[in-house]
RNA sequence: CGGGACGUAGCGCAGUCCGGUAGCGCACCUGAAUGGGGUUCAGGGGGUCGCGGGUUCAAAUCCCGCCGUCCCGACCA
């Protein structure tokens, strides 16, 4: 590494972000423009995200399945809005086995069409419903401009797809999964989100309603971190997904779909990173504790290494967290000074570092250092697992609190003039809660003039007498409270 | 597809104006000392200078063509 300091975040957030992702070895550029290689450091975080989300999906009755990467091009065309939304960014396979294909195959940008075509075969009666499926997969969207983790041509995600007998059941499902995402993002990523309904112009191509989780990054821009759609009967009608109801009549099913991707790793970095690298919340950290033994002589070296591995054993064998054992790594590398190791692990975001040297050995202690605050404190060896577990819990909570406080400090809930709004959006940025008269033309005008978009109509809070009372732009009585922000 | 910049060792760059032995920092390898916040010294390996053509005794450098990448815009349910 040529430079010892990272680019100061304040001067150029994008440059800081790229450098942090590359130097923390989360990802790298691939030979294909816009595609990304996720390195073991980054994939370790993804694996923990997958496991946590998968458990939550199972707990809400969903099962995993797998559908094909290739979708007949005609499938995409069966739902009018859907094809309009996705055709421009589709990657299309025209040749296979050395021959031109009779019908081109689209590399899935999302799997609604292929999945609901299958659902149609599986459902006859209302007794076959609901179908609650999730798929872990990679998808391809040919974006013009890409960014590590946030917008790549190919990305990893999960997409849930369900079919229900009634509108209300589908609506309840879409909202339930939105809450699952919120819980995951707050409790695991320590990334607070605002949840709400998307405007017509921002909703999923083919959906009745789209809900999203919106997080605020450290440059005060919004990141859409997860979405949940009530698809109504749009796809059921396109793919003849029908069933016979209790009354004997044939009805179209109601679908939902919901997704979250490796984009969340980008969100994690932009929420918690600092000038020393990334900070990973303990629950998502592949390694929660790194032990750095410190020695001078060969004699001390074997002593300290033994002590370090003993500490590791005491932590990993501790059952105070049930099956979720503390994840510990001993950095036994030689020829590297302790300070150099500290910087490296801080760059990679390991939440807690333990330093063990001859002085500690004699005193029956070790030195702990928190990654989030960089605070150091001696800990007694006698009850180390308990104190480490408590420290990890504290860090997880503090990171969420810090992120929430930062977001609140940069949210505007009082009514502001449109001029002040423009100033904000061109300057430091913010989440601005404001009234909107519901007119798409106003939404387009604001986007044109400020690049800010309606992130959502928030469900978190209802502000009948606050910003919602009047439309920020026209001053006439407002129909909705919305959150405006510039977004990734 | 428009506007701008760049392409030289794994990474980051200098050298190009004004042609003359392929350089620097980091990383890597060997040895010794060092080791509680980015060690030091000594030695070493590694590059068809994006590709193709032209000018020249001689091209990373000048000329022509191509390719690629990045940034700004357009695009991003």
Describe this structure in words.
With 488 residues, this protein is of the alpha+beta class. The chain is 35% helix and 26% strand. The protein has 14 helices and 23 strands. The strands form five sheets. It has an eleven-stranded mixed beta sheet, with helices on both faces. Strands 16-15-17-18-19 form a five-stranded mixed beta sheet, sandwiched between helices. Strands 4-6-5 form a three-stranded antiparallel beta sheet. Strand 20, helix 13 and strand 21 form a beta-alpha-beta unit. The longest helix is centred in the last third of the chain and has 26 residues. The radius of gyration is 25 Å and the shape is globular. The two termini are 29 Å apart. The mean pLDDT is 93. The structure holds one RNA strand of 77 nucleotides.
């Amino acid at each position: 590494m040529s430079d010892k300091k990272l680019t100061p975040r304040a001067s150029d957030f994008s440059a800081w972000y790229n450098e942090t992702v590359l130097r923390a070895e989360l990802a790298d550029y691939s030979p294909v423009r816009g595609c990304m290689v996720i390195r073991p450091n980054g994939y370790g975080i993804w694996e923990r995200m997958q496991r946590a989300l998968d458990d939550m999906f199972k707990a809400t009755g969903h099962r995993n399945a797998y559908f094909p990467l290739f979708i007949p091009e005609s499938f995409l065309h069966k739902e009018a809005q859907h094809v309009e939304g996705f055709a421009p960014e589709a990657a299309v396979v025209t040749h296979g086995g050395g021959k031109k294909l009779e019908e081109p195959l689209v590399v899935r940008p999302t799997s609604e069409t292929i999945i609901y075509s299958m659902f149609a075969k599986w459902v006859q009666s209302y007794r076959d419903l609901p179908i609650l499926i999730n798929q872990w997969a990679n998808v391809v969207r040919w974006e013009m401009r890409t960014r590590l983790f946030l917008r790549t041509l190919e990305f990893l995600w999960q997409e849930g797809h369900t079919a229900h007998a009634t509108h209300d059941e589908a609506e309840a499902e879409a909202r339930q999964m939105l809450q699952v995402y919120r819980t995951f993002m707050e409790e695991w990523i320590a990334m607070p989100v605002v949840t709400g309904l998307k405007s017509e112009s921002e909703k999923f191509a083919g959906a009745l309603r789209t809900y999203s989780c919106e997080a605020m990054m450290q440059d005060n821009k919004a990141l859409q971190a997860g979405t949940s759609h009530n698809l109504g009967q749009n796809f059921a009608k396109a793919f003849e997904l029908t069933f016979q109801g209790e009354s004997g009549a044939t009805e179209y099913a109601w679908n939902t779909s919901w997704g979250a991707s490796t984009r969340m790793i980008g969100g994690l970095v932009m929420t918690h990173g600092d000038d020393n690298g990334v900070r990973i919340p303990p629950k998502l950290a592949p390694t929660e504790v790194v032990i750095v033994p410190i020695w001078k002589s060969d004699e001390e070296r074997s002593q300290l290494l033994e002590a370090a591995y003993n500490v590791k054993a005491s932590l990993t064998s501790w059952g105070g967290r049930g099956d979720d054992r503390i994840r510990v790594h001993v950095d036994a590398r030689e020829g590297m000074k302790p300070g150099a190791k500290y910087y490296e692990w801080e760059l990679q975001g390991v939440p807690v570092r333990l330093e063990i040297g001859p002085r500690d050995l004699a005193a029956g202690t070790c030195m702990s250092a928190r990654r989030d605050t960089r605070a150091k404190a001696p800990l007694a060896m006698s009850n180390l697992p308990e104190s480490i577990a408590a420290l990890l819990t504290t860090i997880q909570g503090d990171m969420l609190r810090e992120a929430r406080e930062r977001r609140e400090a940069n949210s505007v809930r009082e009514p502001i003039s449109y001029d002040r709004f423009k100033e904000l959006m061109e300057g430091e940025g913010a989440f601005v809660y404001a009234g909107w008269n519901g007119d798409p033309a106003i939404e387009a005008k604001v986007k044109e003039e400020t690049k800010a978009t309606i992130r959502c109509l928030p469900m978190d809070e209802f502000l009948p007498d606050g910003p919602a009372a009047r439309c920020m732009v026209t001053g006439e009585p407002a129909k909705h409270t919305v959150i405006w922000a510039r977004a990734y």
